[in-house]
Amino acid sequence: MKIIVVDDEIIALADFLVEVVNDIKIEYKFFLDNPLDAIEYIKSNEVSGAFLDINMPKINGVELAERLVEIAPGLKIVFITAYTHDEQAIKEKLADALLGFCYKPFLPYDINCYIEKMNAQAAPMQIKVITFGSFDVFVNHNVVKFSSFKSKELLALLITYNGKSLTMSDAICHLWPDKPLELAKSLYRDAVWRLRKTLKDYQLEALVDFKRAVLFLNKKDIHCDYWNSLEGRNEFYYGEFLTSYDWSLEYQQMLDEMYHK
User: Fold this and answer.
1) Closest to 40 (Cα-Cα) out of 7, 64, 8
2) How far apart are CA 251 and CA 240, in angstroms?
3) What pLDDT digit, counting tens, does each position of 126-171 carry?
4) pTM value?
5) I need a surface site. Which of 42, 43, 62, 188 has the fewest CB within 10 A?
6) Could you report the per-residue pLDDT of 87-117, keeping only the tens digit for each?
7) Residue 246 gets which letter from DSSP?
8) DSSP designation for 242
9) d(CA 186, CA 217)
10) 50, exposed or middle or buried, with CB in 10 Å at 0-12, 13-18, 19+?
11) How many contiguous H segments (helices) and E segments (strands) does the chain have?
């Protein structure tokens, strides 16, 4: 992982250096005299995170962060500063790119926590979906915990659609077939909101594209036993598919036919 540190105070840079220089997993680049050099550097280097002072000559740290994120949208920002600032206003400007604030004199624990977060977000995410039996999603071997049964079921239906668009009408027919239409629409919107929040909590926002009354699944980098079976890859199917959901029976019958030919 590569990070940059931009601060016009040599003592602050020296203190930071003590904390990261012995970590062999981290490459780092310091900018002291000209913060604007960081902009040119990031254009030709893949950088995971940036520690930026806020009060600097030539450019304000928040303005620098905005320009850096515009060039590298996946960049994560931590501000190192000796003064209090309007954190909420800065969060509104940088949104998900901002990890937090590290106040001087910073502690080793604070720096290490932010570096660990940067490292975790820079590492490729392993997503595994289990459909044979009960439905579960794992991220880096950790199970995803959904805030509601129906939001989890909605994602299971999307997985079963195997990349095809899922309209609100289809989702309602599968998940709320006996509910009055207006109530079903309200339940659908609630499930969508909860699913969206869960995905954001696990940094899986790119997994589902949420559009008005239709959902799209991004299949890239997902290992799914059901998809692998459809493609003829070796997956052990033992006669159970999404056992918690009634609508899964038609798909289970298809799998039964496939495996008994």
Assistant:
1) 64
2) 10
3) 899 999 999 999 987 889 999 999 999 999 999 999 999 999 999 9
4) 0.58
5) 43
6) 888 888 898 899 988 887 777 777 778 888 8
7) G
8) S
9) 22
10) buried
11) 10, 12
Residues shown for the chain: 261
Query: How many whole angstroms separate alpha carbon 49 and alpha carbon 27?
Result: 11
Strands 49-53 and 76-81, bridge-based pairing: parallel
Ramachandran bin of 140, using left for φ above 0, alpha for ψ from -120 to 50, beta for the remaining angles: left
What element of type H or E holds 164? none
Closest C-alpha to 130, from 165, 155, 163, 164 = 155
Q: Of 148, 78, 82, give the one whose Cα is nearest residue 110.
A: 78
Q: In what order do the strands lie in the sheet with 166-167?
A: 166-167, 214-217, 208-211
What domains can you pick out in the chain, each with its CATH number?
2-122 (3.40.50.2300), 127-259 (1.10.10.10)
Residue 159 and residue 132: Cα distance in Å, rounded?
A: 12
Please give the backbone phi and psi of residue 66, each rounded to the nearest 5 degrees, phi first: -60, -40
